[in-house]
Write a structure and sequence with these properties.
Helix content: over 70%
Strand order of the largest sheet: 1-2
Radius of gyration: 23 Å
Distance between the termini: 57 Å
Strand content: 5-15%
Order of helices and strands: HHHHEEHHHHEEEEEHEHHHEEHH
Largest sheet: 2 strands, antiparallel
Number of strands: 10
Length: 439
């Protein structure tokens, strides 16, 4: 294993692990806040119990995410010193703001968890609002940095060093808001469907209907909202990729030729040696329409790009297909649940829907992992688009297999611990927290 491959593998493992906890940190406080607001409005102890449970889940995932996020911070400096030397003075501000949002979330999560009987009802509710807002801001600030890697702005390079840095322009680069919006709704969809799937499984097994029925309704509403909006934000992101990173778009779609009226490909396998995408279902003109807004829009192909400047096409294309497939299934289930709700039929009473929710529970997280694979692998061989190659940013330190194996073991332990604690403290049988309250 080469040092470059080992460094990339370790970073991929760390990002893939951490992003699960980041998504939960964005969306779980929203579920918690909704349950708290319903409790304040209705006085129901069931909504209070749900808010407490989901707050515990937020705290557990927040703690594990803090560990994996800290590891990522060290990895950026240790594995990619060339990147940090150039990028540090430019994107330091969003990383600093992320830290501020992180501490804000931690402080007010503590107030929410332990201050129910200490602070006023209004202050307690406000703490839940701040946790939800700070959790999403924390992620958005990091995505601003990632957006800069895809669309670098706000600086001039003189003698290999950045000068005339405009921190505001760098932070709010053209990719920042679009990527941020897409991540927010994707997190809502993923976490909403995951929680809905857990409560659907509990209902299918008998469960505790007075707790699981409202939990399912809230989670499905949040997840369905995210699933319906994800294609909208995804389309805007794809339009931007077409302008800022046309090579990435070509890899996503398996587009080899420069083409006017390019087709959209569903499925298929890019043969990188023969430079053709095999077995795909082609929808005429659809790619041009989606990327440019015109049926006769021009789409750049991969053949005009030197092989050394192409990303791994097969990986990028298949990850994109997986992301779209998962999102489409979730959107369909959300639409079905919405249609049933309009007819006054509670999702908890529809066994086929409950089974579908159980099966689809992991799809949102799979879609997020696939989407970030597209974002990062599709940018290769660049760590900073058009400015610095990944091979130029990696550390010269040898024997990177050792930290790779160490962090793999760490994430395995952390992941197992998180699942075990969640099963016992969040999704296990209720105790006195519900009491004898009516549903």
């Amino acid at each position: 294993m080469t040092d470059l491959f080992a460094a990339r593998a370790q970073m991929a493992l760390s990002l893939g692990f951490h992003i699960i906890f980041a998504a939960v940190g964005m969306a779980m406080p929203v579920l918690m806040l909704i349950a708290e607001m319903l409790h304040r409005r209705t006085g129901s102890a069931v909504y209070k119990a749900l808010a407490i449970r989901w707050a515990k889940g937020t705290a557990i995932m927040f703690a594990v995410g803090a560990v994996s996020g800290t590891a990522l911070s060290f990895e950026l400096g240790l594995l990619w010193p060339g990147f940090m030397e150039v990028a540090g003075p430019i994107i330091g501000m969003p990383f600093s703001l992320e830290g501020f949002a992180f501490f804000l979330e931690a402080i007010f999560l503590g107030i929410y968890l332990y201050g129910r009987e200490v602070v006023s009802a209004r202050a307690h509710l406000l703490s839940a609002v701040i946790v939800a807002v700070a959790g999403n801001l924390s992620a958005i600030f990091v995505i601003c940095a990632n957006g800069w890697m895809n669309a670098p702005r706000g600086f001039t390079i003189v003698d290999g060093a950045p000068v005339a840095v405009d921190l505001w322009a760098a932070m709010w680069n053209p990719a920042a808001l679009v990527e941020g919006a897409h991540m927010v709704v994707a997190a809502l969809a993923a976490v909403g469907f995951a929680v809905a799937g857990i409560h659907a499984l509990r209902l299918l097994r008998g469960g505790e209907p007075r707790l699981d029925r409202p939990a399912l309704a809230i989670a499905l509403a949040v997840g369905g909202f995210g699933a319906i909006l994800t294609p909208v934000t995804g389309h805007k992101a794809a339009e931007q990729v077409a302008v800022l990173q046309p090579v990435k778009l070509a890899a996503m779609e398996g587009q080899w030729e420069d083409e006017v009226g390019a087709p959209l490909r569903i499925g298929g396998w890019p043969d990188e040696q023969a430079e053709v995408t095999r077995f795909a279902i082609e929808v005429p003109y659809a790619l041009s329409l989606l990327a440019t807004g015109r049926l006769d829009g021009a789409v750049a192909g991969l053949k005009q790009v030197p092989r050394a400047d192409r990303p791994p096409v097969a990986v990028t294309h298949m990850a994109f297909q997986i992301m779209v497939a998962c999102g489409s299934v979730m959107m369909g289930i959300a639409g079905l649940a919405g249609a049933l709700a309009l007819r006054g039929r509670h999702p908890a009473d529809q066994r086929p829907l409950l089974k579908a929710l159980v099966i689809s529970a992991p799809l949102g997280m799979i879609a997020i992992e696939a989407g970030w694979t597209v974002t990062e692998v599709g940018r290769q061989p660049w760590v900073i688009q058009g400015l610095m190659r990944t091979s130029e940013a990696v550390t010269p330190m040898p024997h990177l297999m050792v930290p790779f194996l160490t962090f793999t073991a760490l994430y395995g332990v952390l992941g197992a611990a998180a699942v075990l604690i969640l099963r016992r403290r969040v999704f296990g049988p209720s105790t006195s927290e519900v009491g004898d309250a009516d549903a």
